[in-house]
Amino acid sequence: MLVFHDHDGEWQLLSGDIEEGDKCKLICFGCIYERTPDIAILKSLPAGWMAERSSIDGTWKCEPYEREEDEG
Description:
Order of helices and strands: EEHEE
Largest sheet: 4 strands, antiparallel
Number of strands: 4
Number of helices: 1
Strand order of the largest sheet: 2-1-3-4
Low-confidence stretches: none
C-alpha cells in the first residue's frame, strides 16, 4: 500500500501498519509483480518519490518526499 523509490535508487514496498520490531523481507520485484501485476504502473516512479493507496483496488497517489537524515 506504500512504495518508496529511495533517493539512492533502492525500492521499499510496505503493506499494512508497521510496528516497532517488525522485520523486513527481501523479495524480488518479479515475485511482487506476480501477486500484484498493477504494481507495474510504478516502474517509472522517480527516485525520491513515494506512492500510496488506501486499498488493493485504490488509485496510486504519487508525490516526492524529503530525504531523511539517515538515508544518506
